[in-house]
Amino acid sequence: MDLFEVLHLDELSHGLANLSMFPYFDMAHYMVSVMALREQPGALDVSRVSPIACWFSSMLFCFGGAVLSAIMLAEPAVAPLSNSTSVLLASVIWYLVFYCPMDLVYCTAALLPLRLVLSGMKEVTRTWKVLGGVTQAHSKYNDSLLVMIAIGWARGAGGGLISNFEQLVRGVWKPETNELLKMSYPTKITLIGAVLFSLQQTHYLPLQKHHLMLLYTVFTVVNKSRMMLTGSSTSPFAVIESAVYKTLFTGYSPYSALTGEVNNPCIDNGATNTTTSTADKRRESSENGEAGQHSPVPPVKGQSESLKAKDESGNTETASCKKTD
Amino acid sequence: MDLFEVLHLDELSHGLANLSMFPYFDMAHYMVSVMALREQPGALDVSRVSPIACWFSSMLFCFGGAVLSAIMLAEPAVAPLSNSTSVLLASVIWYLVFYCPMDLVYCTAALLPLRLVLSGMKEVTRTWKVLGGVTQAHSKYNDSLLVMIAIGWARGAGGGLISNFEQLVRGVWKPETNELLKMSYPTKITLIGAVLFSLQQTHYLPLQKHHLMLLYTVFTVVNKSRMMLTGSSTSPFAVIESAVYKTLFTGYSPYSALTGEVNNPCIDNGATNTTTSTADKRRESSENGEAGQHSPVPPVKGQSESLKAKDESGNTETASCKKTD
Amino acid sequence: MDLFEVLHLDELSHGLANLSMFPYFDMAHYMVSVMALREQPGALDVSRVSPIACWFSSMLFCFGGAVLSAIMLAEPAVAPLSNSTSVLLASVIWYLVFYCPMDLVYCTAALLPLRLVLSGMKEVTRTWKVLGGVTQAHSKYNDSLLVMIAIGWARGAGGGLISNFEQLVRGVWKPETNELLKMSYPTKITLIGAVLFSLQQTHYLPLQKHHLMLLYTVFTVVNKSRMMLTGSSTSPFAVIESAVYKTLFTGYSPYSALTGEVNNPCIDNGATNTTTSTADKRRESSENGEAGQHSPVPPVKGQSESLKAKDESGNTETASCKKTD
Question: What GO molecular-function term can you cite, just one (chains A, B, C) (predicted)?
Fold first, then answer.
């Protein structure tokens, strides 16, 4: 691809492709993951009530992708534990983030500049994880694009996809939402990566692997940094998503009845049924102080909300810690 | 078996045994499964909020049995995805049922005659799925009847057995009920099939495979059609079940205390304890507008109720759609 | 190790090591497990509503460890079913405990002396299960201590670790607590056993296997008997635990704000945030009549409470049954 040669990016992409994730990038990944866990509501209480549940939860945040893809491929789910060095590293970081005297480690790492660097490095590991998953699936199911995408996605965004069960370890249970109902930005970008690397692997995408790695990594890092700096939660795909959504998934609207245009008893009937049930559901969920998953908003909105929530939690924490210095 | 020869059913059973499920019977299975999903409360809302969660849910309805039996046998849970043709077929049907303009596909398929044919064809696939599961288990665990029954059951009724987790994908969580607590008719008929085919496989049942296939298929299809036409939900096994239940499982009734005959402090004590807890439970669950699983009714009743519920939902939909033509 | 020779314990330990668990010790294990299930709130109702759910639940109590470790090692989860004799034995015991006329079996086995013997024998099986898990993991992951501990623990305390899902089978769902959040005594002693046997397996512990088996078995049996006789729930590790807890896991207390010593805005902020959320959580959970897992007590207390609860249930039952004789 001469564009790369023109821009002298070939050797750069080669250099990136030969980059080793261990130990620095892995450490950044563990750091950001454990900090994300710590910023979950109630996580600090759990870390006091039951350190072992907190540790297990952290390991799911750090190695969730490996566990999930292992289960999907019928490989031992304990395999990640067999890599003692990584587990030890993650455990040390878990301990420092949760139990360090004066909370120095967390407060330092939560400073925006440092957090920015760590998050950037974590995004780099995403490329390697997705690619690893895709390659592994390709070696088992040669021709199946779907399996490659599924495994790549699971490997890269496992922590998010199993979040319901990770929360269960901490005694939290939020069935009304999951990453499939309200995809967060990381899950979304990982899915796109899995698709791209699968297409490259099956040669549908006329790109060399290291070039794609460079492009994807740059995109994720830049985009993540932008979102952290501007604090904006506008997904770069929002426009495309809503376009696709409007085109494909609004063939038959069960809400036509609400907007008055009753043109079809079948639809009408269905609409009234479903919407009442929705109302009930929403009432329930509002009682629990949760946003019901049944509110008829396009996924984009839901995702950006959850994303904003995350960012805010992050910012408040950062702010609160800044004061200490 | 000369009865078959007398009735000239031998070649018929051979013909059935050589019947290929792909593509027509599989399509019918996908169609009926996706329609069943669509008729779940709140499913339409999910299809609008998150098409991907809806798609994943549909795949669990269509391939749940394969996934469950794969997990039980420690085979890759993603294997069903590797059969691209089936997944593509199921996905197209999912799209048409949920998002077809004017909702034509669903309303057409929901017409009683067509629905009757589709359901009948789906019942035929059940025989093949159960038999496939039993054979697979037999090849792995030669002599173990229990494993063969378990796998055959899982393969044939997987969608129902994992329903709690399928619902979780859609953000619905109903822990107070599952297919083991309140067996639905399909789960029950599949269990019986699994037992029969396992006995045939281990030669405890003096029948040839293709004869059994014919008998089981005819029974399931006829019975399903009867239930759909009469709209009755009386299980054909209700009598046998309640007889077995009365004989085996009422040795010691913790409810004797309620009926006044206090003949044993042990029982009495147990009864009061449990029934109070039951009362609480029932209050809770009634608040959630759900029938608590702790109400002391025999399983038969519970099952027929749930079955009726299903039928009704089906009928209302059908009715509502009939108007459109 | 001459201490053993001096005390002439060598042949005793050899004798113990060659002891066969089948059938008597296994039967005791099944008996105690099924009785523990029966003493769960609502279990009797389930046994009336759906014998099959009750049976499946009992099998999870009896073979949960084997199932969990099989899943973790990507081995067939149905494997335990393939051992027909054990399953048959467990099923017969399940039937007798739940459905025996006049409830003779349960009331007899619940008599303190008999229950004491059965519980002692069950504790013996624990040694074998933990050792089996550790050995199996060692054969697969030679050098990985963590995997050996995990599998040994899962094999020995599986029933407890999967309790959330075992309860789900019975229609009960208590996300706010699990064995990791509030470790019960059996789970704890099994974890210690798994650690010891793993260290022995990897020769970090200078002890012969049969000597360790003797020591561990004697300790578990004696300790269990003590707890049943005295009805006391003071874990023998309470002191060590709270010492370790105080040393390691109280580096940064989010509750300092409550005790007035506000020395750090970061901590202060975090504390107020988390504690309010805790308050909410506790209110919720108290409404459900459950102890919220978010109450900031050290795990030791939580565990001893749950333990006391268990013991009491056991005692009341025993008492209630004594009257009958």
Answer: potassium channel activity
Distance of alpha carbon A169 from alpha carbon A185, whole angstroms: 24
Quick one: angle between helices C84-99 and B145-161, nearest 10? 60
Q: Does the CB of B52 have a partner CB in chain A at under 8 Å?
A: yes
Question: How does DSSP assign A41-107, residue by residue?
Answer: TTHHHHHHH-HHHHHHHHHHHHHHHHHHHHHHTT--TTHHHH-HHHHHHHHHHHHHHHH-GGGHHHH
**Measured distance CA(B251)–CA(C51) in Å, rounded:** 12
3-state secondary structure B125-149: HHHHHHHHHHHHHHHHCCCCHHHHH
* Any A CB within 8 A of C202 CB: no
- How close A80 gets to chain C, by Cα (Å)? 9
Q: Quote the CA–CA distance of C15 and B321 in Å, as a whole number.
A: 75
- Per-residue pLDDT, A9: 84
The Cα of A15 is separated from the nearest Cα of chain C by a number of Å equal to 33
**Angstrom distance (rounded) from CA A313 to CA A302:** 17
Gap between the Cα atoms of A152 and A129, Å rounded? 7
Contacts with A220 (C-beta within 8 Å, 6 or more apart), sequence order: A123, A124, A126, A127, A189, A193
| Per-residue pLDDT reduced to its tens digit, A44-67 | 999 999 999 999 999 999 999 999
Q: Which of B91, B320, B322 to mutate to test the interface with A (most CBs of A within 10 A)?
A: B320
What span, in angstroms and rounded, lies between the C-alpha atoms of B107 and B119?
Answer: 15
Chain B: list its partners (3+ Cβ pairs within 8 Å): A, C
- Residues 155-174 on B with a CB inside 8 Å of C are 164, 173
Which contiguous run of DSSP H or E holds residue B312?
Answer: helix B299-322
Taking contacts as CB-CB distances below 8 angstroms, the residues of chain C near A46 are 181, 293-294
State the DSSP code for B45. Answer: H
Interchain pair C183, A44: CB under 8 A: no
Contact B208, B11 (CB under 8 A): no
Of C73, C180, C281, nearest to A53 by CB-CB distance is C180
C22 Cβ neighbours under 8 A, 6+ residues apart? C85, C86
Task: Tell me how far apart the alpha carbons of residues B174 and B186 are, in angstroms, rounded to a whole number.
Answer: 20
Question: What is the H or E stretch that residue B276 is in?
Answer: helix B265-287
Tell me which DSSP letter residue C175 carries. T
Terminal CA-CA length for chain B: 49
Residues A164-183: pLDDT tens digits?
999 999 999 999 989 999 99
Tell me the nearest-neighbour CA distance from A254 into chain C, angstroms: 33
Lowest mean pLDDT among B210-219, B283-292, C38-47: B283-292
Going by C-beta distance under 8 Å and a sequence separation of 6 or more, which residues neighbour residue C118? C28, C31, C32, C109
Long-range CB pairs of C261-267, under 8 A, 24+ apart, other chains included: C264/A102, C264/A103, C264/A324, C265/A320, C265/A323, C265/A324, C266/A103, C266/A107, C266/A320, C266/A321, C266/A323, C266/A324, C267/A103
Nearest CA-CA distance, residue C33 and chain A, Å: 24
pLDDT-based confidence at C2, cuts 50/70/90?
Answer: low
* Residue in C50, C95, C170 nearest the CB of B299: C50
- Contact criterion met (CB below 8 Å) for C266 and A321: yes
CA angle, corner A321, sides to A318 and A325, nearest 5?
125
| pLDDT tens-digit map of B22-53 | 999 999 999 999 999 999 999 999 999 999 99
Closest residue by Cα to residue C35 from C47, C24, C23: C47
- Residue C49 and residue B300 in contact, taking contact as beta carbons nearer than 8 Å: no
Please check whether residue C69 is in contact with residue C129, taking contact to mean a CB–CB distance below 8 angstroms: no
